[in-house]
DNA sequence: ACAAAAGTGTTTTGTCTACACCCATGA
DNA sequence: TCATGGGTGTAGACAAAACACTTTTGT
């Protein structure tokens, strides 16, 4: 953890260290207790929430920058991370330009590259950045006010996630190692925001041949114990090359 | 047309005029005589071909920059234009950095935003830029050597086009005002690189309700004259909101 | 009159959808 | 023992795929 003074020095140097005019914003999705979540931060000074973001070091590939930023906020590495859109309106950071009038670095135009990440909820240890006091998961059904154009960035990410559901290993990245069929179904229902038929869902998912059915069942529920599954990563990758066929 | 000296002055000022570190590359697709084409330029000095590209003015929205660049190369406005990927490898412009060692502007790292455009072939008047002697259509079956990472950019655009075939008004943008069913089918076959059944194709396309069947037929062929169609733009837009369902 | 391309309709096949019954478990 | 959720199978609807015959036109 840097002291206040070290921080000030860091941002005074930012213009030298980081590639100017380019930023990265990440929409980090997690899934917990049947709810889809986004990782967000709350500003020190106002009731405004924003998405994890950062800048690109002078000689750093952008994918690597996104990974680094994500690791700083979540503690995890090797996450599923995809570029989805670039936000390049000259007015998108108007608020920052006003707030940081005297700061050379922040007072410039930024083209922001949007990434969305899919992570296993339980692995994440949310860590605030130097502008925030809070870093935490927000439920998609209970979102706060967004700063800047971050609402737009978030919406675009969510739309992309829905479109790519059949082309990306979304289940694999968001579910824990072992999970039950109803849990996986809940994930799909949450992302798509619609109910799916239990039996058809099962047949379809199993038909892809991307799951391993385990011998154990999930005990402790008040009812019949469901089987546990894990992903067959090799088959999953192969299947995704072709895209999982058909729409929901 | 600028003189050589005016050009030199322009690029000497580039650092002031354009947003540093950000560039735009466009993959312009056209369709002519049953062949899919890309618009490319050839360097003055070498046997290297590259994609139309340019930079973003300080206060210019990026979509507007892409449109401006496209207009400069093709003469047309209001084209179908979509962002598809950002290319941010620090080494991607290594060649330029070496070639333009003494130029402050070119000798910097560029994050390039990739756009693909779909245009009506006959509307385009290819115009070289200040680094090229030739601007012309290249057949997808007869592509030249690419400069920098432009082969990668092109491939990524083509993959995106295939994926989005059912979600974007691709036929509308690439076909002339009036066209026959076999011509439209050829377009789909070319993009997807596979043969389609004539009757099923027709039923499917007509089923979307996005075409107007005209009374005239295309005379002059050596055989039965096919009917002409035009797009019903209103229905097309509506249908695309939902995505044209099903895969080929 | 024939070759080649275009128009159109029917049968077959397979996939998605809707639905019902049995089973296991904790309360 | 009952309420609840989980496991599994089947018949019907619908859409895609396969396929054949007729029509038009230039040579």
Automatic annotation (TrEMBL), chains A, B:
Identify the Pfam families for this entry.
NUDIX, WHD_NrtR
Coiled-coil spans in chain = none
Q: Which residues form the Nudix hydrolase domain?
A: 19-162
Going by the entry's taxonomy, the superkingdom of the source organism is recorded as Bacteria
Tell me the PANTHER family matching this sequence. ADP-RIBOSE PYROPHOSPHATASE (PTHR43736), SLR1690 PROTEIN (PTHR43736:SF4)
Q: What is this protein called?
A: NUDIX domain-containing protein
| Species annotation | Mucilaginibacter conchicola
């Amino acid at each position: 953890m840097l002291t206040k003074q070290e921080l000030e020095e860091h941002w005074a140097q930012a213009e030298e260290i980081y590639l100017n005019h380019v930023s990265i914003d990440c929409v980090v999705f997690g899934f917990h207790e049947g709810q889809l979540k986004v990782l967000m931060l709350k500003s020190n000074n106002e009731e405004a929430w924003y998405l994890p973001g950062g800048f690109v070091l002078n000689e750093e590939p952008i994918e690597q920058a996104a990974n680094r930023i994500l690791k700083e906020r979540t503690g995890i590495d090797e996450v599923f991370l995809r570029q989805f859109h670039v936000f390049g309106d000259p007015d998108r950071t108007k608020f920052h330009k006003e707030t940081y009038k005297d700061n050379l670095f922040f007072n410039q135009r930024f083209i922001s590259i949007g990434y969305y990440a899919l992570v296993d909820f339980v692995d994440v240890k949310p860590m605030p950045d130097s502008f925030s006091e809070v870093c935490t998961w927000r439920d998609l059904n209970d979102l706060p006010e967004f700063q800047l154009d971050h609402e737009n960035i978030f919406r675009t990410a969510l739309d992309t996630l829905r479109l790519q559901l059949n082309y990306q290993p979304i289940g694999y990245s968001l579910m824990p190692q072992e999970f039950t069929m109803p849990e996986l179904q809940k994930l799909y229902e949450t992302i798509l925001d619609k109910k799916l038929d239990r039996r058809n869902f099962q047949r379809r998912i199993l038909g892809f041949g991307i799951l391993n059915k385990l011998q154990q069942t999930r005990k402790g529920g008040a009812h019949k114990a469901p089987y546990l599954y894990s992903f067959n990563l090799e088959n999953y990758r192969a299947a995704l090359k072709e895209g999982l066929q058909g729409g929901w």
